[in-house]
Amino acid sequence: MLGSIGTTAAQDAETTAQYNVGHETEAGRAHARDIAVEVHHEFEALDITTVEVTESDLSVLGDHEDIRFVEENIERSLDLPDTDPDNQIQEDLEAEQWKPWGIERIGALAAHERGETGCGTHVAVIDTGIDPTHEDLHANIGEGVAFVETTIESDEAWADDDGHGTHVSGTIAAVDNDFGVVGVSPSATLHPVKVLDNQGTGTDADIAAGIIHATRKGYDVANLSVGEPETTQTQTEAVRFAHEEGLLLVAATGNDGHPHVDYPADLDEVIGVSAIAKDDSLASFSNTGPEVNLTAPGTLVLSTMPGNQYGVMEGTSMATPHVTGSAALLAAHGLSNDEIRELLTASAENIGLGPDQQGSGLVNANAALEEVEKLEGKALAK
Question: 61 and 122 share a domain?
Fold first, then answer.
């Protein structure tokens, strides 16, 4: 739900702030709403309400027996490693379709040759939006939604005014044609879920709303190339609800070069993705830790950019869509989120990094699909 709902209480000059309030009953929800200057989100599936309250009323907010928790609605921001600006926009892609190195490295091109393109799969890109008119994406874009406003003129509220979401989307599902680039799952349907603005920022509740939306829509996979060190109850409950309902969540481990995986990639219900370079070494910026599940190409990643352009970006944000696209290829076979996760990890390639760096290894879309074919063959044999 975009925008405010509920109370119309007048706001005075006193400072206000947003809080996510978990409640046990309708009485607890009513208590939060009664105190609020404004209600921003209602998460009925989670029994959480995002409210804006005055500083003087904050102490009263949690003063009810049916309130489970009160936590600040934290602002989240993209945190990408520095990229050489001279490499960002590529001018020489018009003559032919380029095959980005990461797409080939994870076996996606081999999968395409066998007719595996992710047709019928639905992928939510929970990010800054997608360029709705991009020549290499628009044919694959389905229904979108925005939880933050776009700053550009467009017929679509979810239009990308930052570039990050468009780049991520190209790696997942750029169309296989005669120009531009090709994605891991070039026939999958992309659903833009805009939760980050033109500065790459959005609140914890905005992101949770995006996760719940993708879950309610019944999408197969959701890409979360966003993360922060801080864990919150609101987003954790959204992630767990999504997993229970069958959505596969794939998230970036973070770009600080620290031995600490960002949230929500550190949750058990999420596939956490670290990043490697072209020589299979760990990318210098990639966060690591025991919560890493898979690794994927994350340096010098060529993909789509707004305005029918193509460019290079780096980060675990760019590694994550390689795994998301691979998951989409498997989802086309009707597999559950847990089955896809198991196949991706079991078929991953050991590239010689430690388990905290690579998890089960480098994602290998073609190898995972070979395992699916074996399973399907056994089922037919019975």
Answer: no
In a domain, 247, yes or no: yes
- In this prediction, what percent of the chain has a pLDDT beyond 90? 83
Indicate the SS3 state at residue 30.
helix
pLDDT tens-digit readout, 291-340:
999 999 999 999 999 999 999 999 999 999 999 999 999 999 999 999 99
Question: pTM for the full model?
Answer: 0.93
pLDDT tens, position by position, 50-106: 999 998 898 888 888 999 999 999 998 887 886 554 456 665 555 578 999 999 999
Active site residue 57: no
Residue 31 lies inside a defined structural domain of this protein: yes
Q: Please identify which of the residues 127, 131, 136, 160 carries the catalytic annotation.
A: 127
Enumerate residues 6+ apart whose C-beta is below 8 A from 263. 227, 228, 229, 230, 231, 232, 235
* 3-class secondary structure, 123: strand
The catalytically annotated residue of 185, 317, 326, 347 is: 317
My answer on whether 92 and 206 are in the same domain is: yes
The predicted-structure confidence for 343-353, as pLDDT tens digits, reads as follows: 999 999 999 99
Query: Are the CB atoms for 130 and 160 separated by under 8 Å?
Result: yes
Number of domains into which the chain is organized: 2
Q: Give me the catalytic one of 23, 112, 122, 164.
A: 164
Tell me: do 192 and 268 sit in the same domain. Answer: yes
Q: Which residues contact 336 (CB under 8 A, 6 or more apart)?
A: 246
Residues 115 and 169 in one domain: yes
CATH code, domain with 223: 3.40.50.200
138 is catalytic: no
Question: Of the candidates 73, 104, 122, which is a domain's last residue?
Answer: 73
Q: What is the mean pLDDT of residues 3-12?
A: 40
Continuous segment of H or E residues that includes residue 175: none
127 assigned to active site: yes
Q: Please give the residue range of the domain that contains residue 57.
A: 16-73
CATH of the domain at 51: 3.30.70.80
Tokens 């990050």 map to which residue? 164
